[in-house]
Design goal:
With 299 residues, the chain is of the alpha/beta class. The protein has one domain: P-loop containing nucleotide triphosphate hydrolases (Rossmann fold, 3-Layer(aba) Sandwich), CATH 3.40.50. It has nine helices and ten strands. The chain has a six-stranded mixed sheet, with helices on both faces. It has a four-stranded antiparallel sheet with strand order 2-1-4-5, covered by helices on one side. Helix 3 packs across helix 4 and helix 4 crosses helix 5. The chain is globular and about 55 Å long. The chain starts with 18 loop residues before the first strand and ends in a 24-residue tail after the last helix.
Length: 299
């Protein structure tokens, strides 16, 4: 990772990067006729500059966890216990679960931004890309001059690989990959310390998906923000993540480095996930891993 010290320098040992986000024993319940605990006692830490992958099947609680961290959950979802602490560079520790609505409005996008699931369809179809980017700046940087807003919007768009001429485009005039890049640009606009990305490459073809992933890693290296990357695609996370958390039925059942998750998975569910993806080499019908007992208990 780019944040660690150079071990070759005077024999120094790598220094762990500081933590930017701490989640402790977070539980979220959907209070319906038969209450559903969607997130159960989840604890994790996110380091500055780290890409933390969050993997698991659909419905396991990944998006609910992301929304709870960012206080975006709506009734009937309710946080019943736990703490979410943001370790801000400037303002010290912030308990996100105690912030008022105005404090939350100022916090979101500025300190922690989010690329939502289905982000390709999140752009407003009746206003231009420029107007949507500048709206973020008008809200969070009200003292910024119009010329400065326009230049910043153009430069951030170029940063994610979209020509500034596209500022005057509408969403329907952009390809799926371009729309996704615009959403990433919007999330980067205020230089947040943390970005949550909820399946940002869903519905993109594999070529565009790889281009987007390369951009995310490149931008992380350049700007040193931390990422929580949510997906059900474990092989994708193995490629880009520093650490990976495996989620099952609302709980994180395994959390380790990407290398250890691949080479030495501990939980039966992690082994099943790894064993469920076909190999690109070898005999027809063979899988990435052999010896996975499909009838094994996942608990």
């Amino acid at each position: 990772m780019t944040l660690t010290a150079n071990p070759a320098a005077a024999g120094a040992t790598p220094t762990p990067p500081p933590v930017v986000l701490t989640v402790e024993n977070l539980t979220v319940v959907y209070e319906v006729d038969h209450p559903v605990t969607a997130v159960k006692n989840v604890s994790l830490e996110l380091a500055r500059g780290e890409i933390l992958g969050l993997a698991g099947e659909s419905g396991c609680g990944k998006t609910t966890l992301a929304y709870a961290i960012n206080r975006l959950h709506k009734p009937p979802a309710r946080i019943v216990s736990g703490e979410v602490t943001f370790h801000d560079k400037a303002d010290g520790d912030l308990n996100l679960l105690t912030l008022g609505q105005e404090q939350l409005r100022l916090f979101r996008w500025d300190k922690l931004s989010m690329v939502f699931q289905g982000a390709m369809n999140a752009l407003n179809p009746v206003i231009t890309v420029r107007a949507q980017l500048e709206d973020v700046l008008t809200t969070h940087r009200p003292d910024m001059k119009k010329a400065e807003r326009r230049e910043l919007a153009a430069s951030v768009l170029q940063l994610v690989g979209v020509d500034r001429s596209r500022l005057t485009s509408y969403a329907h005039e952009l390809s799926g990959g371009m729309r996704q890049r615009v959403m990433i640009a919007m999330a980067l606009l205020l230089e947040p310390q943390v970005m949550i990305m909820d399946e940002p490459t869903t519905a993109l073809d594999v070529v565009v998906q790889r281009e987007i992933l390369r951009e995310i890693v490149r931008l992380r290296d350049e700007l040193n923000f931390a990422v929580i990357f949510i997906t059900h695609d474990l092989p994708l996370l193995l490629e880009i993540s520093d650490r990976i958390a495996i989620m099952l039925a609302g709980e994180i059942v395994e959390l380790d480095t990407a290398t250890n998750i691949y080479r030495n998975p501990q939980h039966p569910y992690t082994k099943k996930l790894l064993g469920s993806f076909p190999s690109l080499t070898g005999e027809r019908g063979s899988f990435i891993r052999s010896g996975v007992n499909n009838s094994s208990d996942l608990s």
